[in-house]
Amino acid sequence: MKLFALALGILFFLDLNAQDIYFQQGVKYNISAELNDKEKTITAFETIVYKNNSTSVLNYIWFHIWPNAYNSDSTALFQQLKKDKGRSKKDVRHGLGNIDGLSFKINNDAALTQPHSNPAYKDIIKLVLNNPLKPGDSITITTPFITKLPPYFSRAGFADGEFMACQWYPKPAVFDKNGWHEIPYLDMGEFYSEFADYDVKLTLPSAYIVGATGTLLTPSEMYAYKTTGAKNTVNRSGKPELYIPANADEKKTLSWSARQVPDFAWFADKDFVIQYDTVMLRSGKYIDAFSYYHNSKNTPWKNSINYIKDAVHAYSDWVGEYAWPVVQAVEGPQNNSSGGMEYPMITLITSPDAKAETLDAVITHEVGHNWFMGMLGTNERKHAWMDEGMNTYYQFRYEAEKYRSNSVLGNSIPAEVKNTDANTFQSMVYDVMLKAFPFTTEMDVAADEKTKA
After folding, report:
1. pLDDT score, position 408
2. Using CA atoms, how far apart are residues 228 and 20, in angstroms rounded to an integer?
3. CA distances from 305 to 275, 328, 373 (A)
4. Measuring CA to CA, which residue among 120, 137, 115 is closest to residue 82?
5. Which helix (H) or strand (E) is 310 found in, with range?
6. pLDDT per residue over 37-84, tens digit each?
7. Rounded Cα gap, residues 139 and 242, in angstroms
8. Is there a contact between 160 and 333 (Cβ–Cβ < 8 Å)?
9. φ and ψ at 225, to 5 degrees?
């Protein structure tokens, strides 16, 4: 009897531990896309190999089709925007962006989709599996799609000849130990995505310069970006060298590869100035660094490659070595609710009027998201502090050590405080912020929830 009880106890203990075993679904994307810069559309075909690494049998997969957040004023995105008075400066008209032409197949057999039960979640659908997906098994999911990019006011879109393809493709929601995370696209409230491998091909007019998540695999394009970018890094006082394709009126197809990243974004413009350099980490590892910015007079972006490199060095020393082969920053249009938006290996900086120190801080902050949003893969929507909070701490440390400055306090810091050592400076800054901005809210509040006073 004692032996039976012992065996039962061991089985119970093993069962409890088994429930806590971490798993991560396996996702591999292969996407072929083409940009129509006149129609502002992306026509594409997507193949996803989805492996069920959980212990659950799956009968469906929730899919994000986030471009549909832009297609009506009843979506969760526009419901949130209506409540945000700070967005009144932007043209936030609905109906100007969507995703269409979806026709899902699973292992070459047609598959059904169902809308979400919440009518505001028009950017989420349920893909009904033809057969249950057992633990350890994989399926191949395919669909064509056409994404209509909206005028830029949130994250994705176009403005002044620049294209920002963000959250632009059908994407399985995260399934983890807590179940499905089918979350709508929001303006204030970021994302939670499965780590995945991406192989992406993009066809577009040859005149465009493109920065994207991952390693650019097109040799001629990579050579042009590196040689042009290296010259601009060396010569910053004179006229920048511009990328000029041999056949600007023709089309080109570019390819990228990215491994174990939670998202894939790309940005294109005809007038980007490129800077290029390498970053050597303490381990001896080299990574490529690029910046893409507009050719305007006296732009602080002339030193942007330094800001990117300094950010990577600082975060690698403080948090852990940068894991990916490339890091990039792109100048984008003004966004009146944020200074930038991060994606794996590339970030969009939306502070065109920033002064040098401020631009450095914004680039550093957005590059820093590669650690918390990117490499750690935190759930930004539910636990915003794990990404924004931790990242802002290291941004403040960077500003303190490099400039004895702080983005929140700006020019109000007295000279005698600036003349202290970095640790004393930070301590005094936090004392002032604590008195000026008393924190009366809970720390762990979901980004899309109201905080308690």
Report:
1. 86
2. 51
3. 6, 9, 22
4. 120
5. helix 304-318
6. 999 999 999 999 999 999 999 999 999 999 999 999 999 999 998 887
7. 45
8. yes
9. -65, -40
Which are the contacts of 363, defined by CB distance < 8 A and separation ≥ 6?
A: 304, 307, 308, 311, 329, 340, 347, 349
Given a contact cutoff of 8 angstroms between Cβ atoms, the answer to whether 159 and 168 are in contact is no
Q: Which position has the token pair 């505001």?
A: 120
Does residue 165 sit in helix, strand or coil? strand
Residue 331 CB partners (closer than 8 Å, separation 6+)? 272, 291, 292, 293, 294, 301, 304, 349, 352
What phi-psi label fits residue 229: left (phi over 0), alpha (psi between -120 and 50 degrees) or beta?
alpha
Residue 22: per-residue pLDDT = 87
CA 449 to CA 453: how far, in whole Å? 13
- Separation between Cα atoms, residue 46 and residue 67, nearest integer Å: 15
327 alpha-carbon distance from chain centroid:
12
- For residue 136, the number of C-alpha atoms closer than 13 Å in the C-beta half-sphere is 0
Distant-in-sequence contacts of 390-396, Cβ < 8 A, 24+ apart: 391/365, 392/365, 394/314, 394/315, 394/318, 394/319, 394/368, 395/361, 395/364, 395/365, 395/368, 396/426, 396/429
Strands (E) located in 177-235 = 179-181, 196-205, 209-212, 215-216
Q: Which residue has the tokens 């709508």?
A: 184
Q: Provide the total of helices (H) and of strands (E) in the chain, helices listed first.
A: 9, 24
293 and 257 in contact (C-beta within 8 Å)? no
Query: Residue 122's CB: how many other CB atoms inside 10 A?
Result: 22
At 88 the pLDDT is 54
Q: Angle 300-303-305 (CA atoms, 0-180°, nearest 5)?
A: 130
pLDDT, tens digit, 9 for 90 and up, residues 156-179: 999 999 999 999 999 999 999 999
Tokens 């948090």 correspond to: 319
Max Cα–Cα distance, the chain, nearest Å: 87
List the end-to-end C-alpha distance of the chain, in Å, as a whole number. 57
Rg (CA), the chain: 23
Give the whole-angstrom CA distance, residue 400 versus residue 393.
11
DSSP states of 255-271 as a string? EEEEEEES---EEEESS
Contact 257, 198 (CB under 8 A): yes
The phi and psi torsions of 238 (rounded to 5 degrees) equal: -95, -165
